[in-house]
Design a protein that fits this description.
The chain is of the alpha+beta class and 252 residues long. It contains eight helices and eleven strands. It folds into two domains: 44 residues, no CATH class; 152 residues, 5'-Nucleotidase, C-terminal domain (5'-nucleotidase,  domain 2), CATH 3.90.780.10. The protein starts with a helix and ends with a strand.
Length: 252
């Protein structure tokens, strides 16, 4: 019975994700006790009702979009999945982002908690992407002062690394050193543009100081859609998913 309820939830979630934009206002949780014996008789009718939705959902999410040379999972201080998603988010945001001041994005940061599953080796379908990124997180660009970036660097140190793209650093004696942003040394006097998820931009995962940043620009692209688009372009170019660990965050 629990599997049935979970499946119904997944179907409702999938079609809500594919429909017109809507924002989740709040979530309320309640627990109910179900008896398998008591509800067994209605299982077949429920399944019959959701069958058309299941068929449509399966047709959508089972579409093959690419291939991976290896299993791609998250890790710290850097991981293949974090590197892959951060890099593609940075690249896709540059394609879709039209900055008011013509200054493009310098770097990307995300959180490992937002990546909910690994990508398998071999064929990759849209279903795999929904499993990695089941949330409706969108990409947003923050204009960050040197002080803001310093707070973020301290956060990265405390987390022992998070997914980043366009940023390199070493963690030494519990401090961020040798920080490079967009291929240049970190300059505390500069304003940097960083792309991240709206969840983090609004203060999620203990990043409350980000919610105070005034200038924010919307890319109008979900991270999940960025992943699908990027992988489809790789496939069209005859390439496969094959991220590398490149020492962008190291611990000494």
């Amino acid at each position: 019975m629990n599997r049935l309820i979970n499946y119904i939830f997944c179907i409702l979630f999938f079609f809500s994700a594919c429909s017109a934009p809507a924002r989740l206002d709040h979530v309320e949780k309640k627990q109910y006790a179900f008896s398998a014996k008591e509800y067994a008789s209605v299982d077949s009718s429920i399944l019959q009702n959701i069958l058309p939705y299941k068929t449509k959902m399966d047709a959508e999410v089972n579409v093959l979009i690419g291939k991976s040379a290896q299993p791609v999972s998250k890790d710290q201080p850097e991981g293949l999945l974090g590197n892959f998603v951060a890099d593609l988010s940075l690249e896709e945001s540059k394609k879709h982002f039209y900055p008011e001041d013509n200054k493009n994005v310098d770097f990307c940061f995300l959180n490992n908690g937002g990546l909910r599953a690994a990508l398998p080796a071999g064929e990759i379908t849209k279903r795999n992407i929904f499993e990695v990124m089941p949330f409706e997180n969108e990409l947003i660009v923050l204009s960050m002062t040197g002080s803001d970036v310093k707070q973020l660097l301290n956060y990265i140190v405390n987390k022992n690394g998070i997914p980043v793209g366009g940023l390199r650093m070493k963690i030494k004696n519990k401090e961020a050193v040798e920080v490079m942003i967009n291929n240049s040394p970190f300059d505390t006097t500069k304003i940097y543009k960083a792309v991240t998820s709206d969840y983090l931009a609004n203060g999620g995962d203990n990043l409350s100081f980000l919610a105070e940043i005034k200038k924010r620009e919307y890319v109008n692209l979900k991270i999940r859609d960025a992943m699908i688009e990027y992988i489809e372009q790789l496939t069209k170019g005859g390439k496969i998913i094959d991220p590398k660990l490149d020492g962008r965050i190291t611990v000494e």
